[in-house]
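The protein record minuted underneath.
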Amino acid sequence: QLLWTVVFSLLCIFIKDKNIISIDITNASMFLILGTAINYSVLKIMISDLLNVEHIKRERDTDDLTKLLTKGAAIRAVNEYIQEGGKDASILVIDIDNFKKINDTMGHAYGDVVLRLMGECIRKVFKNPYDILSRFGGDEFMLFLPGLTEPTALRKMVSIFVGEMSQLLTSPETATPITGSIGI
């Protein structure tokens, strides 16, 4: 806009009558200021909209309690990985044993703490940015680990995870012991 305003002003100086040059240059300057203000406002609105869309997607795709992906987001991410030609990967399915009994005996607030700690532990142990970590259901978790297929490495990661969970989830003596099942 600035370039066209300068070109227009120079053409006015060389071509137009001297009586209307100042009017045309004033008009061009005003249009430049007005256009810049409008462009700034529109750009600000567009950026705000993009940020809102990203926030909405993040809210939609993230489980509030565990801060892991939701089931729908995980399925989309795995499908995208496969469509992009991803080949080798492992899937871990984790289920908290007798979670209903934990909720019934200790209360839902305690169950929520267990789920939150599970999410923290999963994020702490499985740090690869390509890992797809999700809460798949009430007390079920699905970890899709691209590139991690070597059985020894998988066992090591699971062992680290179990060790972390053992430290985090020390249950009171009156509570139901917290255990889990992992399928690879």
